[in-house]
């Protein structure tokens, strides 16, 4: 059977206090898709931001039209809620803080068509991928987490904690039904479960840029949660 590439692509964009970043990331997404001739929609799911993100999202919906921008208040997990409204065959999950550049999405789509992959994951750790704007401590934590995961779980993918990915919609739905983790461990579990279920994963090198506005959520609690989640996955997979 010939590989069928994406018809329409739905971008799920969870937000929390992204007032400054949201207009730019939406503009970059719209420009990237238009320049590439790809049909798209952007679903913004805001988790009760107090900084005015919701008002910005509503304005963007008016500017671009509700066929291209949809703004939702989540009930439960943002991804699960967003998927209910997604009309695309493929779904892109990415951060709204400009750390993931939309310019890589056409490369994800090319990679998907090339290998008929179920998932295409952005990787900071292969080819010309990389991280910009992190201090040495943050780089060591990320590299260390990835190395531990590779040793314990052998997932067959080079970047387990990144969250910039393209999924077949039905594959994402099946994975969301099985994944129980939250935070940084969730992204790792998605790939591990995908391999368990026999789904194929392709990779595209990406440049990850530390957020321009706002604060990173990585702290001591997240590191402890990551280690607990990793050990749980090791014990149950």
TrEMBL record:
Q: Sorted alphabetically, which InterPro entries does this protein's record hold? A: DPM1-like (IPR039528), Glyco_trans_2-like (IPR001173), Nucleotide-diphossugar_trans (IPR029044)
Keywords from the UniProt entry: Endoplasmic reticulum, Glycosyltransferase, Magnesium, Manganese, Metal-binding, Transferase
Q: Which cofactor does it need?
A: Mg(2+); Ca(2+); Mn(2+)
Q: Which processes are annotated in GO (biological process)?
A: dolichol-linked oligosaccharide biosynthetic process; GPI anchor biosynthetic process; protein O-linked glycosylation via mannose
Query: What is its EC class?
Result: transferase
**Cellular localization per UniProt:** Endoplasmic reticulum
Q: Which residues form the Glycosyltransferase 2-like domain?
A: 10-175
Protein name as catalogued: Dolichol-phosphate mannosyltransferase subunit 1
Question: Quaternary arrangement and interactors, per the entry?
Answer: Component of the dolichol-phosphate mannose (DPM) synthase complex.
Pfam assignment, any one: Glycos_transf_2
Q: Does the keyword Glycoprotein apply?
A: no
Kindly list the GO molecular function terms attached to this UniProt entry: dolichyl-phosphate beta-D-mannosyltransferase activity; metal ion binding
Q: Does the keyword Membrane apply?
A: no
Gene Ontology CC entries for this record: endoplasmic reticulum membrane
What role is this protein assigned?
Transfers mannose from GDP-mannose to dolichol monophosphate to form dolichol phosphate mannose (Dol-P-Man) which is the mannosyl donor in pathways leading to N-glycosylation, glycosyl phosphatidylinositol membrane anchoring, and O-mannosylation of proteins; catalytic subunit of the dolichol-phosphate mannose (DPM) synthase complex.
Q: In which pathway does it act?
A: Protein modification; protein glycosylation
Q: Which family does it belong to?
A: Belongs to the glycosyltransferase 2 family.
Which superkingdom does the taxonomy of this entry point to? Answer: Eukaryota
Q: What's the EC number here? A: 2.4.1.83
Gene symbol?
Dpm1
The reactions it catalyses are: a di-trans,poly-cis-dolichyl phosphate + GDP-alpha-D-mannose = a di-trans,poly-cis-dolichyl beta-D-mannosyl phosphate + GDP
The organism of origin for this protein: Agelaius phoeniceus
């Amino acid at each position: 059977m010939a590989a069928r590439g994406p018809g329409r692509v739905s971008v799920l964009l969870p937000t929390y206090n992204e007032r400054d970043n949201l207009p730019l990331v939406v503009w970059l997404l719209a420009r990237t898709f238009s320049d590439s001739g790809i049909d798209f929609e952007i679903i913004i799911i805001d988790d009760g931001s107090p900084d005015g993100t919701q008002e910005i999202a509503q304005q963007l919906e008016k500017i671009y039209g509700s066929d291209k921008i949809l703004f939702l208040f989540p009930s439960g997990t943002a991804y699960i809620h967003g998927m209910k409204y997604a009309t695309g065959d493929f779904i892109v999950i990415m951060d709204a803080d400009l750390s993931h550049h939309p310019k890589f999405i056409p490369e994800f789509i090319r990679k998907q068509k090339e290998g008929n992959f179920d998932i295409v994951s952005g990787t900071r750790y292969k080819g010309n991928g990389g991280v910009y704007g992190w201090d040495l401590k943050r780089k060591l934590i990320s590299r260390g987490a990835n190395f531990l995961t590779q040793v314990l779980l052998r997932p067959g993918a080079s970047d387990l904690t990144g969250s910039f990915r393209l999924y077949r919609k039905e594959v994402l739905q099946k994975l969301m039904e099985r994944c129980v983790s939250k935070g940084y461990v969730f992204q790792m579990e998605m790939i591990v479960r995908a391999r368990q279920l026999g789904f194929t994963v392709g990779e595209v090198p990406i440049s990850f840029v530390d957020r321009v506005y706002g604060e990173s959520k990585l702290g001591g609690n997240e590191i402890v949660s990551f280690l607990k989640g990793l050990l749980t996955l090791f014990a149950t997979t």
